[in-house]
Amino acid sequence: MSKVEIYEPAMCCSTGVCGPGVDQELLRVATFLNELEGEGRKIIRYNLSSDPMAFVTNKEVNDIIANEGTEALPITVVDGKVKQKASYPSNANFAEWAGMTREDIIKMVQKNDKPTACGCGCDKEGCC
Question: pLDDT higher for 62 or 111?
């Protein structure tokens, strides 16, 4: 599995559900990365406000911010190389860079799409 790191702008939370509105892109990213982690894949996230040293110690990320400003965030680094900047990767790219095969992704989606006994989607026995 590759080492995947995301250098994100300063924000109060990584889920996109803080503040007055929901950031759908952050919600997508947080949800998918949580699913990947459930499959044993880990993608490291660094927030500029809570992990500033991570931005300082990565020379390439530091240079990008110095030259392009924080508008270049988020920056995705895979095995030490910048793969994407100024936007989050697609779920397919996240999965590929996390070392998942097409079959792994299909199994993950099928597992997450299974309805519960009552069909409401909760983890409780019976209906909610």
Answer: 62
Look up the pTM and report it. Answer: 0.81
- Specify the 3-state DSSP secondary structure of 84: strand
Tell me if 81 is assigned to some domain.
Answer: yes
Number of domains in the chain: 1
Domain assignment of residue 59, given as a range: 4-113
| Residues 29, 73 contacting (CB under 8 angstroms) | no
Q: Which pLDDT tens digit goes with each residue over 61-73? A: 999 999 999 999 9
DSSP readout, 30-72?
A: HHHHHHHHHTT--EEEEETTT-HHHHHH-HHHHHHHHHH-GGG
**Radius of gyration, alpha carbons of the chain:** 17
